[in-house]
Every structure is written in C-alpha cells, then in structure tokens.
Amino acid sequence: MREYYNGLYGVAAYYLAKSTADVPFHIAYPILYTTIIYWMAGLKTEFQAYLTFLAVVIIIANIAQSLGIPQHIFKKILIADASLSACPGFLVSIPFELK
C-alpha cells in the first residue's frame, strides 16, 4: 500500500509480479500432494494415468487460486464480516439445499 500511495508502481505491476513469483509454488505443492495421495489411494499404476491426474490437480489448484483473488478483493470492498467470506461454499450451497 505504501508503494502504491507513493506512486512507485501500480496495482497491475504488483499483481503481475506477485502472480509470477507464486507460479513455482502453485506447481510444486500440487505435485507433492499428488505424488503422495495418488499412490497412497491405490489408483492405477500406469504412469500416463498418474500424469493425467497430476495435470488435473495442477489445473484445479491454479483455478482455485485465481478465483480466490477476486473473492479477497470483493471481501475487502463489500463484505465487512470476515466470517462470511471464509465459508463461500456454504453460501453457494444454500439455494440447492432449499429445494
């Protein structure tokens, strides 16, 4: 915030730099998770199946991360109560539970 108010760089530059710096972690953590869970769960022992599962987990992790950033911005702007933004799945599932 200080750098933004002092005019050193803009929000887009900060977001791009932070996103680029986080890419290795967004790939390494899903690989670690998948390597442990896949073989522990006793799924197919074919390497191609493992790579497919790994690709799906990496894609889902990156999509979840990219959806979390706008939610964080939305929370800061419109939602005053932090407990509401901590459980968005509950709020999304309410219409389906009211059938």
Q: Can you summarize this structure?
A:
With 99 residues, the protein is mainly α. The protein has helices at 2-5, 11-40, 47-78, 82-86, 88-97.
Give the CA-CA distance, first to last residue.
45 Å
Overall outline: elongated
Low-confidence stretches: none
Succession of helices and strands? HHHHH
Radius of gyration, in Å, reads: 19 Å
Overall pLDDT score: 76
Number of domains: 1
| Assembly of the depicted chains | single chain
State the helix count.
Answer: 5
Number of beta-strand segments = 0
Assign the structural class, choosing from mainly alpha, mainly beta, alpha/beta, alpha+beta, or little secondary structure: mainly alpha
Task: Summarize this structure as a short list of keywords or feature phrases.
mainly alpha; 99 residues; single chain; 5 helices
Verbal overview:
The chain is an all-alpha fold and 99 residues long. It has one domain. Helix content is 82%, strand content 0%. It starts with a helix and ends with a helix. The mean pLDDT is 76.
Write the layout of secondary structure elements.
Layout: H1 2-5, H2 11-40, H3 47-78, H4 82-86, H5 88-97
